[in-house]
Amino acid sequence: MEKNVRSIVLEKNPVISIGVTSGHFTTGNVHTNCYLDVSKLKTNALLARDVARELAVPYLSNTLVDTIVCMENTQTIGAYLAEELLQDGTSVINSGGEIHVVTPLTSTDRKLIFYDSEVEWIANRNILLLIATISSGQTLSRALECLTYYQGRVAGILSLFMVSPGQPGHKIHTLFTSDDIPGYKVYGVGACDMCKAGHKLDALISSEGYTKI
After folding, report:
1. Quick one: 41 exposed, middle or buried, by C-beta within 10 A (0-12, 13-18, 19+)?
2. How many Cβ atoms are within 10 Å of 76's Cβ, its own excluded?
3. Which of 16, 95, 102, 161 fits a disulfide with 133 by CB distance 3.0 to 4.6 angstroms?
4. CA dist., res. 91 & res. 203, Å (int)
5. Among candidates 170, 180, 182, which has minimal Cα distance to 129?
6. Contact 165, 148 (CB under 8 A)
7. Which domains does the chain have, with CATH numbers?
8. Could you report the per-residue pLDDT of 39-96, keeping only the tens digit for each?
């Protein structure tokens, strides 16, 4: 499976790229013909800083931000994103302010929750929601449900990758979309062309990586 890996480079910043592996994969909710490896962008400090700079651009001059909520192990990017939004400058609206970077927990019934000590940074605060990849939209929906429950105000949604055309009703700032990957497909369970053709699954994928089947 590793032999089918290729890289997709961000045109405006070639330092940033994602690995694309062709095959037959499942998240448990959907099937897809590509596994997207964004792990280096989340864990390599220098790359995470470049990613944060690109993601910050639409929010620097016109979006008040109190808190960045990080999903799918994007905390390193989130910290650099806060740094970018707080940089000195008369055109930087959050300059001189304070931004908290937090990650929700998952309860036993799979609901997203925050520690009591963190709720003050969510309730009635301006939130940027950062997600690694948005495909089926389930992670996004769970995160938005959580923020609504805690009365957070969503000021923006950011991702490293998103399946086009995005989620109805939500404007998302993303680095890559499925349009950047020729032939990229996502199938609902029971509607997968690869399953119908008799192709076995290669791996179970998640935000942490993949497990061969």
Report:
1. buried
2. 20
3. 161
4. 47
5. 170
6. no
7. 2-212 (3.40.50.2020)
8. 999 999 999 999 999 999 999 999 999 999 999 999 999 999 999 999 999 899 999 9
